[in-house]
Structures are given as C-alpha cells and as structure tokens.
Amino acid sequence: MSEIPDNYYFCLMGQTGGLSIEEGLLKLSGVVPRPVVQFLNYYKEVPVSAVATILTVDENKLVCRTSEVQARAIEFSGYTIIEGVPFPHHVYANAHYDADTGEITLSGFNYADVHSNRRTSVRVRMQVPPVIGVEAGATKFNGRMMDLSLTSCAVTIPDRKLLESFSFFYLTITMPFPTNQTPVMTRVMAKLTQVHQQNRLFRCIFLFEHDKSSEDRIGALIARRQTEIIRELSS
User: Fold this and answer.
1) If you average pLDDT over every residue of the chain, what do you get?
2) Are 154 and 146 in contact (CB under 8 A)?
3) Which of 32, 146, 215, 232 has the fewest CB atoms found within 10 Å of its own CB?
4) Cα separation values, 129 from 26, 47, 66, 233, Å
5) Where are the alpha helices (DSSP H) in the chain?
6) In Å, what is the CA distance from 35 to each residue of 54, 59, 161, 188?
C-alpha cells in the first residue's frame, strides 16, 4: 500500500484479492441502465460528496455527470473517489472535467482505503489566515491560523524559540464577520502537540482544552467557514 503524497484522507491499495477494477468495469459495461455511484472529494479540507450518473464505460475509462458543486471540486483536485456497485471498495480515479459538455472522464483507477475518520471533526482551511494571539506566562506573540477544527488548529509562527519550553498556551482567536458585524473573539486554552518547520516558518498544532463557551464559538466559526467554502464551489 503506497501513501498518496500530502493526503490525509486515503491511500491507494493493491489488488484486494476480490473483484479487480478491470472486472468491475466490464460488469458495468453490461448493465443497463447504468447504476448511480457516489463521488467524494475534499476542497479546502471540507468533504464534498454527490451522486454521479455513468454515461459510458470501456475497459479503462468512465464518463460521468454529477452536480455542479461536485464537478468544480473535481476540477480543482483532478481526482475523485468512487463508491458504488459493482466495486467492493472505494475506487480512486484521475478525473478530467470538461466545462463545455459538463462531463467528467475518469481513468487511472486504483482501489483506495478511505480514512477521513482519522480526524474526529471537520477541518476547514482559512481563506486569509487570521492573526491570532498566543500567550503562556509572560510570553505573548502572534501567529497565523491556517486551519481549524472543533478539536484543534494549525498556527504558523516565525520562530520556534517563541514557544520557549511551554506545553500549554492561551490562544485568542478574533474572526471578523462580514457586513460590519462585531468580530467574534474566542480565548481558549490549548496544548501544543506538534511543531514542523515549513520553509522559514514553523507550523504548530494546538489541541484545544475547551470550556462550553469556547466550544460553541469555535463550532460557529467552523460552520461559517464551511458555508463560505461551499459557496465558492457554487459560484
């Protein structure tokens, strides 16, 4: 089994010992009407899923049509995950979207092990990473929040030395609402669990130690960002 680079959600599988993908495609070619399958993609960390109709089948290619939102997610990512008969497992496929015809051509099939449930909650990527306050004891500095889930967030900082030897920090997250509404400010304790260097910056993973107020506010921020992301795909 070989991991797809920079992918948190699935990895490719070798032959599973059951029905091969070629045999599955052959079965599909003989089925009329074509069965409906499910497509799955991730856009800015948000799962996007919709049913798809199979138009044509040959020994190494499928031509399908799906919703506009799903098609845009496929256009951005260049792949999709297929679930449905006759395949006994999820199937990864390279995907090309033709904006003129609205058709999606799939090729390069592999069985895939989907493991998005490794994350216990939905994660969203920030469009413009907001500046957040980080403090521990008398130490105070700023970072930029790159992504956010109900349980944790990723923050980039310019220098690892800013962290000193602390394990727990207070994060102050201020997210402005559109149309001149009052910004939402959340202060939450968080445990530093990982630090990775990325070029000249350091990516810090913080695990939240919620109280009821901070959990509700973080949940509201995630819901709002999810709506924005889906709106991007729909526009």
Assistant:
1) 85
2) yes
3) 32
4) 47, 20, 32, 19
5) 21-29, 68-77, 212-234
6) 7, 17, 57, 48
